[in-house]
Amino acid sequence: MALPEVKQNETDARLATLTMPDGGCLAEARHAALSRVQTMGLPGRRDEYWKYTRPDTLTAAEAPTAAVLDSGEAPLFDEFDRLKVVFVDGVFDAAASDDLSLEGISIERISDICDKDIHWAKDLYGVLEARGQTPVARPLAALNTAFARDGVAIRVTGTPSKPVNLIYRHAAESSDAILHHVIRVETGASATILENGPAASRFNKCMEIDLADGAALHLVRAQGRDHERRAATHLFARLSTESVFKSFTLTVNGVLTRNEAVIELTGDDAAAHIAGACVGDGDFHHDDTVFITHDAVNCESRQVFKKVLRNGATGVFQGKILVKEGAQKTDGYQISQSLLLDGDSQFLAKPELEIYADDVVCSHGSTSGAIDEEGLFYLRSRGIPTSEATDLLTLAFLAEAVEEIEDADIAASVVDRLEGWLARRR
Amino acid sequence: MLEIKNLHVKLEEEDKQILKGVNLTVEAGKVHAIMGPNGSGKSTLSYVLSGRDGYEVTDGEASLAGEDLLEMEPEERAAAGVFLAFQYPVEIPGVGNMTFLRTAVNAQRKARGEEELSASDFLKEIRAKAKTLKIDADMLKRPVNVGFSGGEKKRNEILQMAMLEPKMCILDETDSGLDVDAMKLVAEGVNALRDEGRGFLVITHYQRLLDHIKPDVVHIMANGRIVKTGGPELALEVENNGYADILAEGV
């Protein structure tokens, strides 16, 4: 079916600004992805899946500008021993990065793989993204697969001694970065991936993760700081038997952020925990959209999303748990909550459950509310000023999501960062 | 120390007068008990003194060591030396007990222009005080009051009182929900804090708490006023005969 004229024009305009890398083992996946984009068209306001979030600035031909800010504070995760992989405005920076060799893990640039005829990543690049196009179209992810020139292919074969930190730096005011990462964690292997930084004035990132039997991956990312950036990210993960995937995302401001996670539990006894905490001020718009499919027995999924909004900020949560026929003993939990610190902010939520198995435990809840006045008075009665008491209660509200971070030191550094943000806003 | 003159208070949201001219003076070093039937205004008095929203003072005064309490925000009253041990301490998930207490101690010190307590000094002090109150380290690490038993919550209130060292301690029905052993423990904590520079206002329904915390003065409150004041024997009289006779006299 032909696209509506407006959508066709917008899609054509965007595609005209991009050049697909030539040849290599990923060429087929790229062309297939381009074909998906051309068929779906880029998202528009009339698309049901984007009803709460305006995609215009994410799809416009030219990237909007965003000032390069330096808050003076050390980047998150700087205090940890980790392997640094640095991208500046979406381009790998070898000089700023560490030597990429580390026992138990191999890290290669996607641009290097492009030149090869055969590579393991060929079986993953664009594959999970393509699977994640039904029942909902995700054209920005397909666009990413088609045009990403950089990113990393990570293969975890053991248990690396330290986390890999993907660091995204922003240096040009109108940078338009597209990064695509693929991660394969082999049987019984495990790793931690950290991501942080504002990346670019406009950032389109896609990460495909394939977990083999008994594999584990922990992903902790921090998006931006106080920044005018716009970002659309997609996380596609497939979990095999007894594998574990835990993801936590901290988002602090930014004009527009849309984070989509598409998780498939395809092996028995697998567990996926997807969590996010965001704090936003003013014209901040933050959208978490999650789709979890249970397609195996005795799997567990948790979605925990917390948003703190003030001065007119907007938060969106769209989360779905689909339990397929035969996925018995599924334990699915989904909670999305927002703390509205004033009457101007808003939270829009669409939690969904779709269940075709009869022996499952699934729950979902979505709430928004103001600060707890009882708690506030209790803290003030102990001498804590209102602003500090509000911050304490705000951190307390976010705690359930932060607790999803497995490493206590990493969790503590995330809390420190949140405390700093809250203190600066007093 | 605490001086309350002709205090009239009504609920903000409804036209209901709760306190109808309370007069009370608590001297430093003294323990005053307030007893009275339900609905007499005892808890309202404690909330008004600590600055809780929802109450409107329509007349009267309340001061601590000469400072007008009614002009202050709750945190300012706390820094000035008011401490309210809640009847139902609030649960605050996600805030560690230790973090909360350290924030409170240092906020008060800062407000008074004192140097903040270092992490190690704070730890030493809280450990010592927790030991006296038989509060185990695990309880200090848990979120404020979350999952605490009734006794643990009240002991936690007394621990806060011990750490914050207020001038005026107001205990709002601290005995509710406590078994005999827990009550003894809480009372021991209170008694350890009794000194010449500190006043206590112990609000209670029953004599049994006063068996452990010996009051210097006992007041009976009814219908928004203090209707009778006496020594410790007044509490015993209430225990033996109830409020009926006293109320009849008071009216």
TrEMBL record, chain A:
InterPro entries: Fe-S_cluster_assembly_SufBD, SUF_FeS_clus_asmbl_SufBD_core, SUF_FeS_clus_asmbl_SufBD_sf. Residues 172-397 form the SUF system FeS cluster assembly SufBD core domain. GO terms for biological process: iron-sulfur cluster assembly. Coiled coil: none annotated. This is Protein SufD. The lineage of its organism: Bacteria, Pseudomonadati, Pseudomonadota, Alphaproteobacteria, Rhodobacterales. The gene is sufD.
TrEMBL record, chain B:
Keywords: ATP-binding, Nucleotide-binding. Signal peptide: none annotated. Gene3D superfamilies: P-loop containing nucleotide triphosphate hydrolases. PROSITE patterns: ABC_TRANSPORTER_1, ABC_TRANSPORTER_2. Residues 2-248 form the ABC transporter domain. The keyword Lipid metabolism does not apply. The keyword ATP-binding applies. It comes from the Bacteria. CDD domains: ABC_FeS_Assembly. GO terms for molecular function: ATP binding; ATP hydrolysis activity. Belongs to the ABC transporter superfamily. Ycf16 family. This is FeS assembly ATPase SufC. It comes from Phaeobacter porticola. The lineage of its organism: Bacteria, Pseudomonadati, Pseudomonadota, Alphaproteobacteria, Rhodobacterales.
